[in-house]
Design brief:
binds flavin mononucleotide; 6-stranded mixed β-sheet; Alpha-Beta Plaits
Amino acid sequence: MYRIAYVSTAHGDISSNSLQKILESAIENNRAAKVTGIMLFNGSNFLQLLEGPQENVEAMMAKICKDKRHRNIVVIMREKSVTREFEDNPMLLQTVKSSTSTPPEGIRVTDDVSLYLPSSLSPHFRNLLENFDTIKA
Ligand SMILES: Cc1cc2nc3c(=O)[nH]c(=O)nc-3n(C[C@H](O)[C@H](O)[C@H](O)COP(=O)(O)O)c2cc1C
């Protein structure tokens, strides 16, 4: 098991429709690749965690890095792991409140990300996810 987390900056306006498109391909492809994770969008930036078999996670990351809908991709975590944190979620997406006017179907809009985080998550990473709405760059 392997995980990568990165932050990036949205390129251009990310409408709820384009968020939905990203989520749809993520759910479909990640399920097939046994990759799970979470993605946050705060109106300007993405924070995504991908976890699964190392080869699949790296391949997914390489594909995501070529996507023109975001730029300035910075990897903040790249490590081997024993457990899978987001067991049931090919890609759970949270938008932080008010980042989109109409929340697309299947996307949870919340100002309390902690409600969706597994209790096993490391305190360091938990803190980052919980405060992501306040760190716009
Ligand atoms: C911030 C961001 C996160 C993304 N996350 C994923 C992901 O987890 N899985 C995925 O398959 N595609 C993800 N994508 C989309 C990919 O870059 C790519 O467009 C998509 O995988 C192509 O899917 P297709 O080969 O089915 O056409 C993401 C795109 C962006 C901008």
